[in-house]
Design brief:
This protein has 251 residues and is an alpha/beta fold. It has one domain: Glycerol-3-phosphate (1)-acyltransferase, CATH 3.40.1130. Helices cover 47% and strands 16% of the residues. Helix 4 links the parallel strand 3 and strand 4. It is globular and about 55 Å long. The two termini are 29 Å apart.
Length: 251
């Protein structure tokens, strides 16, 4: 039954992205900026999350929602979520109060329809082979985007991490926050419980999303700031998904 559920969700994503993406691409000739985000990107991603819930049985519950800055809060914000699956890349754009700008590898731009749409939205694509140039681009574009009211989202571990495991936290988000006097919001996400890494085999259940308090980066050192973010996220992950970490420790 889970196979059938997962297949239906995957088919819906594959089929629906084509007309929706073409509509976004065509509209981007005439419309740019926030309207393109709110009219096309956010509604589509919200739809995927709803389909995953109704068809795939993947529910979610929020903790710490009061820590979200309000829609009229113009502080510069960088989201730093735990990254376990595809689910959170769909979820956050669907529910934030500000448009999001992902920092992502430019190879994703070559994916037909999906990648082309990402290229038309105001995001930051980088070439990871040239780290110095990549960082300069993140710092420059990140500041401009945040000044325009967008939030930046960066996965501090850089890639999806197996449930119950911890990756190496990189200081890029902390460096950007310090450079731009931004706030970092740490987020714990137990998505690996229902949508395993590198898989479309969905497991019915509930994903916990815990929002931490915004951390001001002004006057901080990158390593020390990221250590604080890492400590909060990992402690919260152990609290929300103790079974996964107990299995990892036992293994």
């Amino acid at each position: 039954m889970n196979f059938v559920r997962s297949l239906l969700v995957l088919l819906w994503m594959a089929v629906s992205v084509i007309p929706w993406g073409i509509l976004l691409l065509f509209s981007s000739i005439f419309v740019r900026g926030d309207r393109l985000w709110w009219w096309f990107a956010a509604p589509y991603l919200r739809g995927v999350v709803v389909v995953a819930r109704l068809v795939g049985g993947v529910n979610y519950r929020m903790h710490g929602a009061e820590n979200w800055p309000a829609a009229d809060d113009m502080r510069r914000v960088i989201l730093c979520p735990k990254h376990q699956s595809t689910w959170e890349t769909l979820f956050f754009p669907s529910m934030t109060t500000h448009p999001l700008a992902y920092v992502f590898k430019r190879e994703l731009l070559y994916i037909p329809i999906f990648g082309w749409c990402m290229g038309r939205l105001d995001m930051v694509h980088i070439d990871r082979r040239h780290r110095t140039r990549a960082w300069a681009k993140v710092a420059q574009q990140g500041k401009l985007l945040m000044d325009d009211g967008k939030w930046i989202i960066m996965f501090p571990e850089g890639t999806r991490i197996e449930r119950g495991q911890k990756g190496a936290y990189q200081a890029g988000a902390a460096r950007l926050a310090i450079t731009t006097d931004a706030y970092i919001i740490p987020i714990a996400v137990t998505s690996g419980r229902c949508w395993p890494r590198r898989s479309f085999s969905l497991q019915p259940g509930t994903i916990d999303v815990s929002i931490g308090q915004p951390v001001c980066a002004t006057g901080r050192a990158p390593g020390e700031l990221m250590n604080e973010i890492e400590h909060w996220i990992e402690a919260e992950m152990h609290r929300l998904d103790p079974e996964a970490y107990a299995q990892g420790e036992a293994g």
